[in-house]
Amino acid sequence: MEKETIALHAGYDQKAxxxxxxxxxxxxxxxxxxxxxxxxxxxxxxxxxxxxxxLTNPTTDVLETRYAELEGGxxxxxxxxxxxxxxxxxxxxxxAGDNIIISDKLYGGSVTLLTHTIKRFxxxxxxxxxxxxxxxxxxxxxxxxxxxxxxLSNPQIAIAxxxxxxxxxxxxxxxxxxxxxVATASLFNPIAWGVDIVVHSTSKYTNGQGxxxxxxxxxRNGLNEFFKTSxxxxxxxxxxxxxHGLVYTDVPLPNFCxxxxxxxxxxxxxxxxxxxxxxxxxxxxxxxxxxxxxSDNTLEIAKFLxxxxxxxxxxxxxxxxxxxxxxxxxxxxxxxxxxxxxxxxGSFEEAKNIIDGVKLFSVVVxxxxxxxxxxxxxxxxxxxxxxxxxxSAGINPATIxxxxxxxxxxxxxxxxxxxxxx
Length: 422
Fold this sequence. Notes:
The protein is of the alpha/beta class.
């Protein structure tokens, strides 16, 4: 099936049960097992089915199935937030004494999670230049467990050199993890380009209305065989003492998501609520249409900003003048570059005046809403970073980030034009 059809139908038989057209919300904590044997079989993985909503839920199952198909993956697992998805993806393969290699252009929350919080778990983060991955190979050693990057970065709106990253990773047998939140599964599928794991903050474009927090992890087909033959990830091949000696690669289920479910989701518990899963399913049904409109609107806004005398630079790879334009044409469907852009003005004071001067744009740190949003990254989403870290990440005090919504672009341009003249 094509993506538009998958988003509407995958994972749910509407003729089953009461024949509801809308996926039901299974708003329950636990499930009544048929008998003691049934309960034991579920916990032993002899039978598959819901056990406890921290682990599985029928509404969430539909969302996971749809997302796995949209990304061309083998399986997916929902989490309570995008940050939880990133943490689980890393914690699933790395432990104290290991290192991960992360892009120099990431969302601020990802930077602090991966360079500060995870450091306290004994995991070191090394930073590579994602634009060409020129220094990536030199950072890899026998303790490297993952290479993490964003397909379309927030807020730099830069596109990683995905081919080179994947090539280097495969040469050394290192797992690749791509955050595809901004590009979305509608425009880009990292797995089709050789990436192993995809993560999303589904709070963004998947939801589209700013009504639900969520995250998801998707694994590619064939990871079971990869783990079986890899000494780098031996914990997938040795008995898990916390789960009665289970060896994950002995189970004919996608191992990466299975281990997150049976170990991390079970123990840490950052699970997605069924109601949030239902809200995200509603958003997913219109994702493709919205992302096309977001992209078209954003390109029009980017062209306006590029021509304005008070704007020093515009970061949007849909512009022919942008350094990543060729990558957008190569990787993304129809060369569209989603709904996020950033631009620089002369000073922090100018940026502040513009943000305070707009009327239609809301000052919000989320992205991907149907309504247009504006924010100052250096003092909000990336405020935990030092001045040196901000500059190395391509963010300065005069950078403004826009998440372009579905309004009429004439109104949005008029709003920005008036704020730029204040």
